[in-house]
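Collaborator request log, item 7. Partner lab (contact: R.S.) asked for a structural prediction of Hydrolase MhqD to inform their binding assays.
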Amino acid sequence: MEYIYKENKKDAPVFVLLHGTGGSETDLLPLAQVLAPDYNVLSVRGEVKENGMNRFFRRLGEGNYDWEDLEVRSEALVNFIKDKSQEHDFSLEDVIFVGFSNGSNIAMHMMINHPETFKKAMLFAPLYPKNLEGNIDFSKAEIFLSLGKGDPIVPEEQSNHVIDIFEDGNADVTSIWVNGHSLPSEAVEHGRAWLNR
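Returned to partner:
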């Protein structure tokens, strides 16, 4: 996988940056810098191509996931993060997922499959169009969600579904609403306040 690793401060938390459709491993670096410049960064490029655009997993249409592909690529990404944690000497406990859109979606899938490993995430414009069988134990998880009113890609009921998945698992959830499918400065400011609370 193509990636950037940047150590800013030994033993600081590590942002795992996961871009949206059409993005790359450089997209969210400025966001990380604004959120917490001392945090270390592992930024990954999705390996799937959709009409030439980078993604983390295949889909069959807007909001219609190839769940089998998501499962395979999610586990590959988990193993990649584990490998990098050993290579760069950071703890998986220190990982904070920071995702936008497609990146948020694979981050959420990794957390659902590995709630004991990944416990902190900032998810901007997430979509998870599936009902879980039972609740996941997210009682040790801290989640920041930025969701869109009038989002043309994620219906409001689906945004509420994301909130429900985490709250039903007893996560500590902070959610804000912004306009559309976006990552505006207000979301960044709220996210920074959440990190520093």
